[in-house]
Specification:
Layout (H helix, E strand, L loop, with lengths): L3 E4 L6 E4 L9 H14 L1 E4 L6 H8 L5 E2 L15 E4 L31 E8 L7 E5 H6 L3 H7 L3 E4 L15 H5 L4 E4 L1 E3 L6 E3 L6 E4 L4 H15 L5 E4 L6 E5 L3 E5 L10 E7 L6
Parallel strand pairs: 2-3
Antiparallel strand pairs: 1-2, 3-14, 4-16, 5-16, 6-14, 6-16, 7-13, 7-15, 8-9, 8-12, 10-11
This protein binds N-oxalylglycine (OGA) and manganese (II) ion.
Manganese (II) ion binds next to loops.
């Protein structure tokens, strides 16, 4: 079966069929998949659940995997894989339910070098619910009035793991994990290193305050930009099929999990993040 691409949404999302990831893609196929990702922002490769070694090997053309920070969710066979499960609980805290990414965010912006890509592989998916939503941050930037685009030039924002503005619950972290994530600041508009296009760079979960602005003015600006960027016109909503490998570009998108699947239905994802560069 030949490699075939289909658009998933009007302005983002692309699906690839006809590629069997049980063996790593050849150079030509890998190049086509990477181009499709740059073009579609979210790339879904349809297939069957892969064993951990095959999954990691198949994703090598997308970049260098970064070992997962949260030690207790690491896959026992592969340090590159984090297991996200509907059974996740706050093990170091009160044992309450944890749904990773339940509010709009981009991955790893609390780091000086946030990951470029995130890859989720659907091992078990619920029959209904559990979709992942995305927004196109190029489109959100381009839709801003000129005056706002000018206002944002050179503006930087402090990102903090445990931001006072965060919308979701984060798991309790060990002192060592906390010490590894000091505050960082990033530009509020970034230029994608591969496409050269400008994108809004927001993370409602981790942004603490605009550098050089008082708190009230900063909150007002961030709230306004978040409301704009998450408008339905910029969204794509991914409905999972078992075996999907979903790759998204954190440099020009935000995303959000939905914990709306029925009680008792399982959702298990194998997650890989890919090394990135300093946002500019
Ligand atoms: C993530 C994430 C969303 C989901 O893995 O970074 O936000 O739908 N996941 O599981
Ligand atoms: Mn995420």
């Amino acid at each position: 079966m030949a490699l075939e691409f289909t658009r998933l949404g009007p302005h983002m999302g692309i699906a690839a069929e006809g590629v069997d990831l049980a063996t790593p893609p050849d150079t030509t196929t890998a190049g086509e998949l990477r181009r499709a990702l740059l073009d579609g922002l979210v790339l879904c490769i349809r297939g069957r659940p892969l064993p951990p070694d095959a999954y990691v090997a198949a994703m090598a053309p997308f970049g260098t995997p970064r070992p997962q920070l949260g030690l207790h969710r690491r896959h026992p066979e592969r340090a590159e894989i984090m297991i996200l499960s509907s059974e996740d609980r706050d093990e170091l805290g009160d044992g309450g339910r944890i749904v990773v990414g339940a509010a709009w965010h981009t991955d790893d912006s609390f780091m000086a070098l946030p990951c470029s890509l995130t890859i989720l592989h659907g091992i078990e998916v619920p029959e209904s619910g559990g979709d992942t939503q995305f927004v196109n941050m190029y489109a959100a930037y381009e839709a801003l009035p000129d005056a706002m685009q000018r206002r944002l030039t050179g503006v930087r924002v402090v990102h903090r793991y445990d931001s006072s503005r965060k919308g979701n619950r984060v798991g309790t972290r060990s002192a060592e994990e906390v010490a590894r994530t000091p505050d960082v600041d990033h530009p509020i508009v970034r230029t994608h290193p591969e496409t050269g296009r400008k994108a809004l760079y927001l993370n409602p979960n981790r942004m603490e305050q605009v550098v050089g602005m008082d708190r009230a003015e900063s909150d007002q600006l961030l709230d306004q930009l978040i409301a704009h960027a998450t408008e339905p016109r910029f969204q794509y909503r991914h409905k999972w099929h078992r075996g999907d490998v979903l790759i998204w570009d954190n440099r020009c998108t935000m995303h959000k999990a939905n914990a709306d699947y029925p009680e008792g239905s399982r959702r298990v994802m194998h997650r890989i993040i890919v090394e990135g560069t300093r946002p500019v």
